[in-house]
DNA sequence: GTTGAAACCTCAGATCC
DNA sequence: GGATCTGAGGTTTCAAC
C-alpha cells in the first residue's frame, strides 16, 4: 500500500483528534466526505491505523503513580523471554513492556494508585516471577511530553506500508 | 467530581474504542443517549478524558526504530530541568519525556526511520544539549504490551477526581 | 480507478419532562 | 435519567472524469 500526501494528512489529523468527524477531516484534506472515508477505511484495513483510544488522565482517575521498571532476566532464551512477556501481560497495572538490547532485558511502564500498592505489585508479581534476576525501578516525578505515535511531516516524508 | 460505576464503564469503553458512537456507548452502559452524552462531556470537561487519538502502527508507517534514552544532567536545578524539557519538546522524534527519581534524570522514548537517522538525532540534538552529562540508549527489540491509560476494574475501584 | 453528487439513514445535540 | 425533535454527519449507490 502506498501512502500519499493526503493519507499522511489524514493520519496526522486523526492522530491528533481521533474523534474528528469525517466531513471535518474531508474538508481539511481537500476532499469530499466519501473518498475521505474510503481512505480512512483503507488505512484501518491495512493496519496503519490500529484503533482509536480515549486519552485518560491517570492522575485524576486515581493512578497518580507511574513507574519505570528495568528488568533483567537470568536466561535470555526465547521461551524464557516469551514466558516473562506472558507473565506481565496478565498484570493490568503494567501498561507497557518493551524488550531492549543491552544489559536490561525489559523496560516496563507501570501505573499504581499509591506507593503501597505499587510496592505490592512489585514484590508479589514482578520480583518473584520466574527467571527474574533484577528489577530496578524509578518513580516518575513528572511527564513533560507524552505523545503517542509518530511524527508526520506535512510533506515529503518516508512512509510506505509493508516491511 | 465523583466517578460512579457507569462513568468507569464509559471510560473503559472509550479507552478501548475512542470512536464508538454515543448510542452504542449508551446501550452498553445501560443508558439512553442523552444522559450518556452528558456524562461523556462532563468527563471531558473535568479533564478525565484529555482527548482522543488514532493509534498508528509506527513500524508500518516508516518508523521501525524505537529507542529508550536515559539522560542524566549535570545540574538538577529546576530551571535546568525545565530547559531540558523545553529542548526535547521541540524534537518531533522524541515522543515521551519523563523525569525520574534516582541517578537517571529523564527517560525519553524516541522513534526513528532508521538507525542512521536515530544516531543523527542523538549526536546533533541530544548529547550536545546544554547541561547533558550522559545519555545511555537502548534499542527496542520488540514491544510485547502497549496499552495507554490505566486499568479500569469493572467495579469497586478507586477513582474520584481531584487530588 | 478514484472522485464527486445525491440519496438515505443514523447519530449528535438541544429542549423539555 | 428519559423522550422527542431537528439538523448534521455517516454511509451507500451511482455517474463522471
TrEMBL record, chains A, B:
Know the name of this protein? AsnC family transcriptional regulator
InterPro entries (UniProt xref):
ArsR-like_HTH (IPR011991), AsnC-type_HTH_dom (IPR000485), Dimeric_a/b-barrel (IPR011008), Tscrpt_reg_AsnC-like (IPR019888), Tscrpt_reg_AsnC/Lrp_C (IPR019887), Tscrpt_reg_HTH_AsnC-type_CS (IPR019885), WH-like_DNA-bd_sf (IPR036388), WH_DNA-bd_sf (IPR036390)
GO terms for CC?
Answer: cytosol
MF terms from GO for this chain are: sequence-specific DNA binding
PROSITE patterns xrefs: HTH_ASNC_1, HTH_ASNC_2
Keyword Transcription regulation on this protein? yes
Gene Ontology BP terms = regulation of DNA-templated transcription; response to amino acid
Keywords for the protein's UniProt record, in alphabetical order: DNA-binding, Transcription, Transcription regulation
Ranges for domain HTH asnC-type come to 3-64
